[in-house]
Specification:
heterodimer; A: 255 residues; alpha/beta; 6-stranded mixed β-sheet; 4-stranded antiparallel β-sheet; 10 helices; 24% strand; B: 234 residues; mainly alpha; 9 helices; 0% strand; elongated
Chain lengths: 255, 234
């Protein structure tokens, strides 16, 4: 479990995160949603330690990440897997080398075991025959899958996905969503997905955190979204007439 | 940043592999341009010296002597380093800068890798190791080119050129130039690595980082050239 306790983050004098308190449960897909510029990416960067918070604490299974020294953080980070918005695959390495990278850097496996692990990861994300290709030779969806394969290579306890569907067609987006969901349940990891894609949220979201103007404005599960009175959330989720119609139909059907 | 760069590597075997890769990228792939420039500069220095010595009181072997001194003392270390700051420095800054804006450095940090050390240390070590070889290649080829072009164009005989090369030779001058090359290698790789590592924004900012990396490297090379010369030669 990841606990976020009253964190605030300022850039110069501009408050980007204001006293956010939430938690991300293990074995579930936890979403952070919000409009562009709402602070959701900053929140994620603070949680994984890419940015330092001005106030508050972040706890990984009770371990206070905020107070940790660099070497202590390094140990926690080996339990973290992250899929970046642009995949962030290393250009100079092949798909296989990308997935091998954390294993070689921190793993204790033999070469044969590492090779097996790479094959398992690629099979898990349904990528075959691409071991020797470079990231530039892959499609966007394949790059995302490779990113997921790299993220799960160390068997992470915490999986972070930053806009996993950005730039993907709806069909590929659903494949990536399902992959994230399956991996979360299989590995029982604490998954945090940052997104503003409501399709993904309604498809795989177990718990949703809505950030608005740097504050946690709403928290609940996807069913509750249909009935919420939170105006900001309603404006965000049901921005289009189509979504409003869908909401009304679902409300009628579900009473 | 330098304390991070020089902190203990996570896994030495990976760093060793990275250093070998960087020796190839920074050093071996620079041999061509260094060889070409050195050969032409050696030839031009020989011809220009000959063209400027028109007094019968100045012996012909002065041409060989001047070519040797120019190459050893300044051209092969300082001028070559200025050229390499353009080739190697901009390459380092753009490579690391692009990794920064495409979140590849964040990916390293998330994994728990000391990204500054992983990316920059092998480049510094590779350059400090290989630059002296480039300088030796440059001195050798410049002198050889002079020995071909001088007698070939009839401005000096080969025996006069060789006499000039050997005249009042101080081996310490080679040591001095090799020391300079190691210092310049450190400046180019660390300054470029720094500017690449702290790039933020997009393609425009990567370009600006490249420019800053090259300009700062050149300025620092010139300042350190003066300081080293003052300390070692006088």
């Amino acid at each position: 479990m990841i606990e976020v306790r009253n964190i605030s983050k300022r850039f110069d004098h501009k408050e980007v995160l204001n006293n956010i308190q939430t938690s991300f449960d293990p074995g579930r897909v936890n979403f952070i949603i919000g409009r562009s510029g709402s602070g959701k990416s900053v929140l994620t960067k603070c949680v994984v330690g890419l940015m330092e918070v001005n106030e508050g604490e972040i706890l990984f299974d009770g371990r206070n990440f905020t107070l940790m020294s660099r070497p202590e953080r390094k140990i926690v980070r080996q339990d973290i897997g992250m899929l970046f918005q642009g995949s962030a695959l290393f250009d100079s390495l092949t798909v296989e080398e990308n997935i091998l990278f954390p294993l070689e850097m921190f793993g204790t496996m033999s070469k044969a075991e590492m090779k097996k692990r790479v094959d398992w990861c690629l099979e898990r994300v349904e990528l075959k025959g691409v071991n020797k290709l470079y990231p530039a030779e892959l499609s966007g969806g394949m790059q995302k899958r490779t990113g997921i394969a790299r993220a799960i290579s160390m068997n992470p306890k915490y999986l972070f996905c930053d806009e996993p569907n950005s730039g993907l067609d709806p069909q590929t987006a659903i494949v990536i969503d399902n992959l994230i969901k399956e991996i979360t349940y299989d590995l029982k990891c604490t998954t945090v997905v940052v997104s503003h894609d409501m399709n993904s949220v309604m498809e795989i979201g177990d718990q949703i955190n809505f950030i608005h103007q740097g504050k946690l404005s709403w928290k609940g599960d996807k069913r509750e979204i249909l009935y919420t009175n939170n105006e900001d959330l309603n404006r965000f989720v049901f921005a289009s007439e189509f979504m409003q119609e869908v909401r009304d139909i679902l409300r009628r059907e579900r009473g | 940043m330098l304390t991070e760069v020089f902190s203990k590597p996570e896994r030495l075997s990976i760093y060793r592999k990275r250093i070998v890769e960087e020796i190839d990228k920074i050093g071996i792939q620079s041999i061509g341009i260094i060889a070409l420039l050195s050969a032409f500069m050696g030839a031009v220095i020989t011809l220009q010296t000959a063209a400027n010595i028109d007094s019968a009181w100045v012996p012909k072997w002065t041409i060989g002597f001047t070519t040797r001194q120019s190459l050893i003392l300044e051209f092969s270390s300082t001028i070559m380093s200025l050229i390499l700051s353009g080739k190697v420095g901009s390459n380092i800054a753009s490579e690391i800068g692009t990794m920064r804006i495409s979140e590849q450095i964040d990916a390293l940090d998330i994994m728990g890798v000391n990204s500054a050390s992983y990316l920059i240390l092998p480049k510094i070590v590779a350059a400090m190791f290989f630059f002296p070889f480039l300088v030796v290649i440059s001195m050798f080829l410049g002198i050889v080119a002079g020995s071909i072009i001088g007698p070939g164009s009839g401005v000096i005989s080969l025996s006069d050129y060789i006499y000039g090369l050997q005249y009042y030779f101080e081996p310490f001058q080679v040591t001095y130039t090799l020391i300079k090359s190691v210092v310049f290698a450190f400046i180019i790789t660390s300054v470029s690595g720094y500017h690449g590592y702290y790039t933020s924004g997009g393609a425009l900012q990567v370009g600006q980082s490249n420019t800053r990396a090259v300009v700062y490297s050149i300025v620092l090379i010139m300042i350190s050239n003066y300081i080293i010369t003052q300390l070692l030669l006088l």
